[in-house]
Every structure is written in C-alpha cells, then in structure tokens.
C-alpha cells in the first residue's frame, strides 16, 4: 500500500513538473510570436500564429507556422519567407511567397506576394536584413491555441495555475510528512517510556527481592545464634549433670 502511495506521489510530481515545463515552453514561443523587433527561436525554429488568410490555401488564419533561420543567398523565387515589414503603418512580421528576386552589385532585394492576394504584390520591397527565416511547415488551427496562451487568461491557466497547484501539492506533501514524522516520534517515545517503565519495575522487584533475601539471611543468622545458644546451654547442663553424677558416686 505504501509503495503504491509513493508511486502515486512520484507520478503526480512528474505530471505537475511536465505541465510547468510545457507551460514555460508555450510562454516562450508565444512571446516569440508577439515580439516584432527580435524573434526568438527554439532549436533554430520560430513558431508563429497566422493572423490573416493572405496565404490561403497554403496555410490559413489561426494556423501555427514554423520558420527556420536560413542562408538568404540560397533563397529562390517561390520560397515562402517571414520578414520584417510595415503593415498599416505599423512595424510587423509578415509571411509571404517570394515573387521576384533582384540583385544589384551583389545586393539582393525581394518582392513578395500573398497566395490569396489576387496577384497584387506587397508594397514594400525587402532586403536580406529584413528576412527572419524560411517557412518549413505548419499545424492547422494550433495557432489559435498559441494565441490563447499568449493572452492574460492563457498565461493564468497554463503558467500560474499549474505552479499554484504544484505549490499547494508540495505544501500538502510537507504537512503530511510532518504529521507522519510527529506520529513516528510519538510512537518511539511511547515505546521508550514503556521500556523505561518495565525496567523500573524490574529494578523495584530486584530491590524487593534483595530486601527479602537480606531479611531471610538475618532471620537465619538469628536462628543459628539461638540454636548455638541452646546447644551451649545443653552442653553446660550436660556437663553439670555429669559432674553431679561423679560427685554422687564418690559419696
């Protein structure tokens, strides 16, 4: 029973730690998708949530795409890239297909277009320094989950709540350990007291036996002295009787 309980405790701890680690990973990746100035990466990949249907049907709004850092010199027309640009007068990240590559004096520039933009290219031409990475794949609708995780409610549910539950569980575990320890100490003290009580009784009994033995010895000594006194008296009487008998014989 104790073994099963111990295994259950370990399993719960592992699950809670896994939730916290996954939550931390989600938090990192969602922050990466929201940061337009510097893009974070996990093992060289950046997960991003698609915010529009400009690339439909390749991927759609709410999908989670994966961008990998790349060598821009190896990019070619038709590749899908993520890059820094201006959208609605705001600095943002965009993911579109390379429509055309121009090179002047070894400097490349890229014209991009969305697959669902009816053949209308993007307004801003980008350079190598604007490119974050190359699109390598996506997971449908997972971006909605990432968007939720990047929200205040998602952070509360995925980060704060698991950590709170883990903290509560650890406090409960410490309390139970403390209770079991106190119980074990109480049992041990009770056993020691019982043992001490038994030893005390043995000592008292031994003292009592010693007193009785001493009393018996004194009684035996007294009886011996009385017997010797009686014997001495008898010998004296016998000697007197013998003397009287000798005296009467002489007369």
UniProtKB/TrEMBL annotation:
Database matches in SUPFAM superfamilies: LexA/Signal peptidase
Enzyme class, first EC level, given as a word: hydrolase
Entry keyword annotation includes Nucleotidyltransferase: no
UniProt membrane topology term: Single-pass type II membrane protein
CDD domains in the record: S26_SPase_I
GO MF assignments: signal peptidase activity
EC number, UniProt record: 3.4.21.89
Keywords: Coiled coil, Endoplasmic reticulum, Hydrolase, Membrane, Protease, Signal-anchor, Transmembrane, Transmembrane helix
Localization: Endoplasmic reticulum membrane
InterPro entries documented for this protein: LexA/Signal_pep-like_sf, Pept_S26A_signal_pept_1_Ser-AS, Peptidase_S26, Peptidase_S26B
Membrane-traversing stretches: 7-28, 153-175
Domain Peptidase S26: 39-85
Coiled-coil annotated spans: 203-251
Main location: endoplasmic reticulum
Function of the protein: Catalytic component of the signal peptidase complex (SPC) which catalyzes the cleavage of N-terminal signal sequences from nascent proteins as they are translocated into the lumen of the endoplasmic reticulum. Specifically cleaves N-terminal signal peptides that contain a hydrophobic alpha-helix (h-region) shorter than 18-20 amino acids.
Descriptive protein name: Signal peptidase I
Organism, as annotated: Ruminococcus hominis
